[in-house]
Amino acid sequence: MMEVQQETEQKVVQVNPRRSTQKAEIIEFVGPPGAGKTSNCYCYTAMLRNLGYQVLTLKDIKNHLNSISKTKRVKLMAKTLFLHLPKVVSYSFTLFLNRIFSLNSITRYLRIAVFDTTLHQMLAHKKYDFVLLEQWMIQELWSATIFKLRSYGKIEKQLHRYYLKTDKLLYFDIDMETASVRITNRTSNLSRFDRMDPKRRVRKLKQYNAYLFNLYKYAHGPEKHVISTKNSPQENANHFLQHLT
């Protein structure tokens, strides 16, 4: 009986090796359209939850935000402005100096800032092991600026000041021809790349992908990993688990 109990305890430790005192590890997914960020995020989330980890995703954050009352939402937005106003002003000034200021760019920043405030409120009320974010600040800053500049050498070294704090950055590397084929096969048609003809899409993806990778590269603080999209999401998830253990 004692041997069975010890064996069970060992299995529990192997399944969930994180200490209960550890804070949630916030992981941001970065990569061009078609790289499989969302598919990988779903696979990582399912794998970690099956192993007994508490995982929070961007979808969970959005659902929580939609479930609270209007009064709480207004308070949340007021808190976001209080916490992020200096950065919003500085970000706006940076866009203005680079001649790409737009309300859309500011709205994108504020939206992620609201999600970030919501995220930390949720972390304060419940313990999570991981937070997986497939569409976060780096991706939004990239989307807000890619079609407005001819050269990115200057601004890509400035935008890291406006990133939100994360513990890990995962960059999903893919060749642009494969990414274009994946985009063609999507049914959402929400992205600007979805509406491009294939030849123009490949050309634009090549043009903008180097800029996105540099935004990832210039991030200060988080641990960074380049993930090959030649592997399946399941294979990547298994490699991720091996790295954790």
From TrEMBL:
Q: Mind telling me what this protein is named?
A: Uncharacterized protein
Biological source species: Nibribacter koreensis
